[in-house]
Amino acid sequence: MNTRILRAPGILGATLITLVALVAGCSGSSTETVTSSSFARPEVTDVTVAAIPTADLLGLYIAQDDGFFAQQGLRVSIEKIASSQAIIGDQLAGKVDISAGSYIPYITAQAEGADFRILAEASTLREQTRALVVAANSPVMTVAGLIGKKIGVNGTNSIGTLLISALLAEHGLSPKKVDLVTDDAGFPVMPQALNEGVWSAAFLAEPYITLAEEQYGERVLADFNTGATLDFPIDGYVATRAWAAKYPATAAAFVRAIEEGQEVADTNAPAAQAAMAKADHLSASVTAIMALPEFPTGPVDETRIQREAEDMLQFGLLSPAFSAEVDNGSLIHSMVT
Questions:
Q1: Helix, strand, or coil here: 296?
Q2: How many CB atoms lie within 10 A of CB 105?
Q3: Which of 111, 150, 202, 294 has the most neighbouring CB atoms within 10 Å?
Q4: Residue 59's closest CA among 243, 248, 211, 260?
Q5: Torsion angle of alpha carbons 237, 239, 245, 251, nearest 10°?
Q6: CATH number listed for the domain at residues 36-126+232-336
Q7: Can 36-126+232-336 and 130-229 be said to share one CATH topology?
Q8: pLDDT tens, position by position, 197-254
Q9: Inter-residue contact 76 to 69 (CB < 8 Å)
Q10: Is the confidence at residue 294, as pLDDT, over 60?
Q11: Dihedral over Cα of 315, 2, 277, 12: its sign
Q12: What is the model's pTM?
């Protein structure tokens, strides 16, 4: 059984490629506050963000709870989703302005002709922030023991698919030897489903790894922050190019508020824990000991996101027809410029 290690929060970060200038947010303890008065007025004030309720997006939840969006002249509605894959259609139809979750479905859509922009990086892996979890009484004691078994994931062909494939490959096992089953309700219900024996293992994110341990005695079988996926990019904020180009001041205001929220999460662990507890109605016994990912700041790092595209190609999440665009970096470049 793995031993949980409580880690301090990483650095939260965001950037917007279409901005004329990048404005850093202020920490919760700072006497200086970034307000909308210094910048162009948002073209629209109502913004819908589709987000997975995980610790990776604490900057978003804190920005909402602490009024940073309001300070920038925005009214943000956060709609909970199970995975990024589930929301792409609505985003392309204009029903969602910004999504907050896994890059993978967006990289796939971009390769197939969509036109998305990564506005900001949200998180990268840290120890125990993404893990394979098994039931307390599970006979599965090793990764090899998963062969022929069902593994629950929150999204089809998303970050869970990639991380599981990479983990199996590092153990000399074919990803085709396991059966990935998508739970359309996502992380919040997956610890209970695992406890009820729906699958032999589940791909979980924090704080649901901790919830699984605290409520059901479930145990971490494997941590994904290792080997080829060490410090791997996980989540980001994504909009269509059309939306970002039509509303550049709105997008800029959104990013400034995210920067402030991220700064608070980076420097104020109790605030981060309270935001996560509120976002998904979790008890303090869970959020007080959850592990936190790393949160990059500054311009979107093409090299970091390129890792994801290369692994997607390697493990069949991208068709070989797009190998040239992946190999020369043009696919990811098209998403950050």
A1: coil
A2: 25
A3: 202
A4: 260
A5: -40
A6: 3.40.190.10
A7: yes
A8: 999 999 999 999 999 999 999 999 999 999 999 999 999 999 999 999 999 999 999 9
A9: yes
A10: yes
A11: negative
A12: 0.86
Say which CATH class 130-229 falls into.
alpha beta
Q: Is the pLDDT score of 3 beyond 60?
A: no
Query: Which residues are CB-neighbours of 33 under 8 A, at least 6 positions away?
Result: 26, 71
In the predicted model, is pLDDT for residue 104 greater than 50? Answer: yes
- As given in the structure block, the two tokens for residue 274 are 């309270």
- Written as one letter, the residue type at 90 is D
Q: Where are the domains of the chain?
A: 36-126+232-336, 130-229
CA angle at residue 123 from 261 to 93, to 5 degrees? 85
Instruction: Please give the Cα distance from 6 to 49 (Å, whole number).
Output: 29
Rounded distance between C-alpha atoms, residue 159 and residue 210, angstroms: 19
Residues with Cβ within 8 Å of 169's Cβ and at least 6 positions away in sequence, in order, are 175, 228, 315
Given a contact cutoff of 8 angstroms between Cβ atoms, the answer to whether 15 and 299 are in contact is: yes
